[in-house]
């Protein structure tokens, strides 16, 4: 749950920056997000041939290199 709160804080902070620093009447804003490591699920304990498809929970292992 802590990760969700942290993500919410980051998103609100980014939105405030966008609202303050852009003219929303002239500028179209797009947001895209992707895990920094999403290609091989074996990197976070998944199947050898898997990927990030349908992954919905954060990786909780503090020793994981993507954390």
Question: What descriptors fit this protein?
Answer:
single chain; 67 residues; mainly alpha; elongated; Trichome birefringence-like C-terminal domain-containing protein; TBL_C; transferase activity
Question: What this model shows, in words?
Answer:
It is a single chain. The chain has one helix at residues 2-21. Helices cover 30% and strands 0% of the residues. It is mostly helical and 67 residues long. The model has no long low-confidence stretch (mean pLDDT 79). The protein starts with a helix and ends in a 46-residue tail after the last helix.
* Overall number of strands: 0
The chain-level mean pLDDT equals 79
The topology string of helices and strands comes to H
As a whole number of angstroms, the C-alpha radius of gyration is 16 Å
Would you summarize the structure shown here?
The protein is an all-alpha fold and 67 residues long. It is 30% helix and 0% strand. The chain is elongated.
Structural topology:
Blueprint: H1 2-21
